[in-house]
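Summarise this fold before class:
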Amino acid sequence: MTGTSHPSARPATPDGPYLPKLITVLREGYDLAALRADALAGLTVAIVALPLSMAIAIASGIGPERGLFTAIVGGFLVSAFGGSRFQIGGPAGAFIVLVAACVAQTGIEGLTLATLLSGVLLIAAGALRLGTYIRFIPYPVTVGFTAGIAVIIFASQIKDLFGLSLPMAEPGALVPKLAALWAARETISMPALALGLGTAGGIVACKRLVPRWPGMLIAVGAASLAAALLHLPVETIGSRFGALPRLLPAPHLAIPGWAEVQAALPWAISFTLLGAIESLLSAVVADGMTGRQHRSNAELVAQGVANIGSGLFGGFCVTGTIARTATNVRAGSRGPVSGMLHALFLLGFLWLAAPLAAYIPLAALAGLLAVVAWNMAEKHEFWGLIRASRGDALVVGATFLLVVFRDLTEGIVVGFALGGLVFIKRMSDAAQMQPVTEHPYDAAGGDLVVYRLSGPFFFGAAAQLGAALDRIADFPRAFVVDFTDVPMIDSSGARSFDLLAQKVARMGGHLWFTGTTPALRHVLLAQGLRSPRISYLPDVAAVQSALRGEADKPD
């Protein structure tokens, strides 16, 4: 997202990497006008988060109240301790598949334990300052991953959107799921389909006609009212889950056994990886909208604290949410207080309106998530990467297909590995070793050949040197390698010059290195490329002067 000006944008302060942005904002001065702006932004985000949190929880195979607990506790802690001024934390659609699979395998207790362990891992990642490296995940990986998640979310809502009745539990894998849903096509419920499509259409219409209105809440509310007044035979939150609680549960921590920890740990690692990526990506989006800069490691620590808090109060994994964070910025947020107020507003909604939630049709929430999935897909970015280059197409396509048909974590890991290989190939192609002809030398029957390197010279580019050597038929008396245009060299790249030094020495010549910076020279010397085999001079002119001085000496 391109950066735009924001009324609260100021130069970044030199605070520590773990200092919460809340403290920074309060230091800068926080007045009543800022509180009013944050209250309005927090209320706006809470209205968006109310139906969405319940929908994500239901799609994940757990009760809607747990989505609200997650948004309330996790959202408050993310804003209070986070490294981003505008981050809104809560349940995210990207976690639906993971949470559903975790619940199916380990139960609610296993999900809670995995959430707590994920919190510990996120705090450790922040303490080890891994946030800087997580942000280096290639863009095609994030696009392919997000598009894959969108497909899975939409597929998970087909049953409730069409009101289908399945004779057995809905399969988790995409292909068996679609086969089971197709087999149940005769059980389609037209009232449910009408409510689902009407909700989706209402959200889209509100966004286009009155974009400042809370389209999700309006559409879900209208569908609930229609279902109640018309006595439509559709499944609702009340008919499936019963009444929602009006208060947060008391915090609870069960001491797990080693077997439970072993079962929950793989899920915790997946939650940690996905949560870190999603949160930091959301923070980057907020930075682009406001001109601010988040503290990535502070954000990871806050996400860890939020996950621990969410697990203690009956919620599940928390992450930064891009759509709600963007809504927070657009609503005029001045800082983290708006995110904290958003959580308190949700708590107030829970206390006041919990009985009304029982009337919400599940088809309406399915329609809402269908719109969310459509918006998540990043269709233009996906096709743009497919057309950009073969390397980008390979990375985004492989990530997408693995996420959809195999596993989320596998898709990220393989996509990251492919992205690294594509990067290595491109950097290797950028490294060149070309002969330079403007430095002839004929004194005393000798000659001088200069080869100029350009681009980063690392292990991926070392083969370029071998190819250049193969093209050299006769080695000169003086062979110069000019490093002036080389920004960096690694040990593999430096080691590859050892072969060149040996060949030049066998032919009775001498190898000269010019234009080396102190950093480059340090790497080259560490690989044994030192006198008497190699001489270092500032430039080619210095080599010529040295050779002329040598030629003038008597035999």
The chain has 23 helices and seven strands. The first strand starts at residue 89 and ends at 90. Confidence is low (pLDDT under 50) at residues 1-13, 441-445, 551-555. The first helix runs from residue 21 to 28.
